[in-house]
Amino acid sequence: xxxKPKIHHRLRRRNKALTxxxxxxxxxxxxxxxxxxxxxxxxxxxxDGVIADTEAVNARVSIKVxxxxxxxxxxxxxxxxxxxxxxxxxxxxxxxxxxxxxxxEEQVKTATQLRQEYFLKILSEEPLPxxxxxxxxxxxxxxxxxxxxxxxxxxTLEKSRAVLNAAKVPYQKMVYINGNDVKNKKPDPELFxxxxxxxxxxxxxxxxxxxxxxxxxAAKAAGAKCIAVTNSTNAANLCQADLVxxxxxxxxxxxxxxxxxxxx
Length: 264
Description:
Strands 3-2-1-4-5-6 form a 6-stranded parallel sheet, sandwiched between helices. The protein is α/β, with parallel strands linked by helices. 48% of the residues lie in helices and 10% in strands. It has 2 domains: 40-52 and 129-261, HAD superfamily/HAD-like (Rossmann fold, 3-Layer(aba) Sandwich); 55-125, DNA polymerase, domain 1. The longest helix is centred in the middle third of the chain and has 21 residues, at 105-125.
């Protein structure tokens, strides 16, 4: 009788080593590797006070509007701080409230329209460089397969687009959500939830870059992590953020991944 090829014996020995538990362990290892490879992270940027120093321009034009429309002098930038990140109307109301000025809805509308006109005029006449580290962080994230980038701002389409163009942000290659796209402004999370949905990423896998307390609250309410930069207010006012920095030059993609991997 002819001998059976030895290879058959080797195959049988290999098969004997494959138990149900070992097969499950191998499959789990494969699944874990695939999940790790396909893990996506979302990076969401606010605009005003994060991309460039627009808060200085916002305050400047608002002070001018308050003087021209309401004869109110002595208004300063800090008077608008409660309205940071909440949209133009809330910004105007915040400044008025500090001075005990009761505005009608029509007055608020007129003030916000004039404010935007002055803002756009300044942007057309003066340069608006981005904050250091912003474009570099965006560019590095956009080059990675495991990152998606979005812009999410309470500002109107016209106003925010003017800022992005002035700062040379390639927003056409990103998810772009502005105040015209949502009903509720910060601290409501709608803006960031919509950005995450358009990126196709769970909010828990996203980091929001913010500069204002209302924006930090909105990011946390959305279930995202938040990095706050002290461009518009001090660190104490941003204490609800997961991480506070003085410049985005201090932030890299590894920092963002480590932040997202905490408590997961």
